[in-house]
Amino acid sequence: MKPQSNDLWSPTSNISNLANYSLSTLLGKGGFGKVVKAQHILTKEHFAIKMISKKPSKLTQSKIPTNNEVTILKKLNHDNIISYIDSFEDNSFLYIVTELCQEKNLYGKIKKSGKLKENEVKEILLQILSAVEYLHDNNIIHRDIKLENILLVSEGSNKIKLIDFGTATTLDKNHRVSGYCGSAFYISPEMLEGEYNEKIDIWSCGILAYVLSTGKWPYKERNTEDVLENILCSPFQINNDNCEGLSYDFVSLLKEMLRVKPQERISASDAIRHKWFEDDIKM
């Protein structure tokens, strides 16, 4: 198995499990590792393999809890959540094998189009909220819902899969957790203040829906520290100036999803049953 270009990923040697796959194109990379396209040599089926480094991050100087993602993925079975296939490891990396989605993520979709029509946003958001409802019903918080973590399954389709459970966690017996993680633009105010619950995912979904439908980011700042300070001092809110052109019912839902006080914020289950989705649910 010899890499042919810089876009191909070279496996480490002497890993029997990895030798069962023929690895090819680099699909993406982040702070802790890479995702590559792979074909199982025996079955000829195609998958994605996520390679997570066990070494401390250069940014945080701490190790990622590699086993946590596998533990959570094994529990999940939902049509809009990426399917777990297998996992194995060596001294340096954890390898997670999942189903392969052929298309790009939502960030790539709006980067090309600028923004989506409201009906498209409705179709996509309903699927995301369905996945989030399932997670929350199972006491799991994703903690990093963003455009880049929503994959489109195939070309010409708006069917999606929620991916990347590297920072996901389970709620404790008091249904509270703590710890800062995720991407700045999508972070809810309470995450920066201390303990929080599953409602942080709803805030992230609200921001995501706003960006999809307007093509605008919630904060003008681009520096992470400035964005976080803005979230604490003046969190994003829907008003007449920033939601022009959106339907009354959609604006109503966005306001419910982006309430600053988490106890007043709508749940995933109630969001799915909002009037904006009424026609879709009847279908």
From TrEMBL:
Q: Which domain of life is it from?
A: Eukaryota
* GO function term, MF aspect, one: metal ion binding
Source organism per UniProt: Stentor coeruleus
Record: residues binding ATP: K50
Question: Which keywords appear in this protein's UniProt record, sorted alphabetically?
Answer: ATP-binding, Calcium, Kinase, Metal-binding, Nucleotide-binding, Repeat, Serine/threonine-protein kinase, Transferase
Q: What family does the entry list?
A: Belongs to the protein kinase superfamily. Ser/Thr protein kinase family. CDPK subfamily.
Record's subunit section: Monomer.
Q: Gene3D superfamilies per the record?
A: Transferase(Phosphotransferase) domain 1
Q: Tell me what this protein is called.
A: non-specific serine/threonine protein kinase
Q: What InterPro entries does the entry give?
A: Kinase-like_dom_sf (IPR011009), Prot_kinase_dom (IPR000719), Protein_kinase_ATP_BS (IPR017441), Ser/Thr_kinase_AS (IPR008271)
EC number from the UniProt entry: 2.7.11.1
Q: Which cofactor does it need?
A: Mg(2+)
Q: Which residues form the Protein kinase domain?
A: 21-277
Q: Give the catalytic activity.
A: L-threonyl-[protein] + ATP = O-phospho-L-threonyl-[protein] + ADP + H(+); L-seryl-[protein] + ATP = O-phospho-L-seryl-[protein] + ADP + H(+)
Q: Name one GO cellular component term.
A: nucleus
Record-linked PROSITE patterns: PROTEIN_KINASE_ATP, PROTEIN_KINASE_DOM, PROTEIN_KINASE_ST
